[in-house]
Amino acid sequence: MNTSGDRLRMLLREVHLSASDFAKNRDVTPQHVNNWFKRGVPLARLDEIAELLCVTSRWLRTGEGPKHPPTNLQLEGPNHGNSAAAREDCGHYLCGPNSGPEKIDVEIPLHASFNSQESLRLSLRTLEQLNVTADRALGAYMVGNSMIDIIQDGAILAIDRGRTQIIDGEIYALEHHGMLRIKYLYNRPGGGLRMRSHNNSEHPDEFLTYDQRFEQNVHILGWVFWWSTLNNRRPPVPLDEHLTGYDGSKSD
Q1: CA 146, CA 165: separation in Å to the nearest integer?
Q2: Which of 133, 152, 198, 233 has its CA 20 to 30 A from that of 51?
Q3: Cβ-proximal residues to 181 (8 Å cutoff; 6+ apart), any chain
Q4: What CA–CA distance (Å, rounded) separates 207 from 192?
């Protein structure tokens, strides 16, 4: 291990982290990380990466001195102030010899109506950007064509159960007589509710009074903050000629 790039490669292997996952977490491209392997870690990022992987900047840069900071000494680098940092608290990826990598993705459960042991996998960054905690998130599938052209039948949804206060015109998941529904919601006077579908030519608006909301067991699950995009309306494009026969001639 003659270069800081060699040492970085070894550290990522120790915590079972791929170069692409490390690049994603550091908000750089995988090519950047490969360049660091070949040319060495840039001086501007040495302290950051050393802290992340719980090694000393000097060891990462030169291979000399102690690999890990002592538990009774503060970390190297200009941004750590005067506070002492124990080794078990110093890194996000490597906090000890047997610890694993920082979470980059999280798994969230599906709504109980799908009777499935499957879970939805989302990036932690997506949740953080929208201020959604993993324990509040819930997954679901879109069933039917009521929201077609924006959410296709069969699309995967993610719901924030921490946001149940209705903001007019936002998309929410709700249970209605025990059935999961995905709708635009609007407040109405007296605590009433308007439920609107994107495909309102086939699914007209529904209006409920305050009393009807309780009589019909309407329960707002949360705000729909993410959904997958499917293009299930494939255009009738003919096959290319070279696909119609093995020898270049059209098959019968």
Answers
A1: 22
A2: 133
A3: 146, 173, 174, 175, 195
A4: 7
Q: Which residues pair with 214 in a beta bridge?
A: none
Segment 165-175 mean pLDDT? 95
Q: Measure CA 142 to chain center.
A: 19
Count of domains for the chain: 2
CATH code, 185: 2.10.109.10
Cα–Cα dist 28/182, whole Å: 36
172 three-state secondary structure: strand
197 CB-contact burial (10 Å; exposed 0-12 / middle 13-18 / buried 19+): buried
Report the predicted TM-score, pTM, of the whole model to 2 decimal places.
Answer: 0.55
What are 108-139's pLDDT values in tens digits? 999 988 876 778 888 887 888 888 998 999 99
What pLDDT band is residue 163 in, cutting at 50, 70 and 90?
very high
Structural domain includes residue 156: yes
CA angle 219, 220, 224 (to 5 degrees): 150
Asked whether residue 239 is assigned to any structural domain, the reply reads no
pLDDT digits (tens, 9 = 90+) for 38-69: 989 988 888 888 888 888 888 888 988 888 77
- CATH number of the domain residue 26 falls in: 1.10.260.40
Where in the sequence is the domain holding 46, given as residue range(s)?
A: 4-89
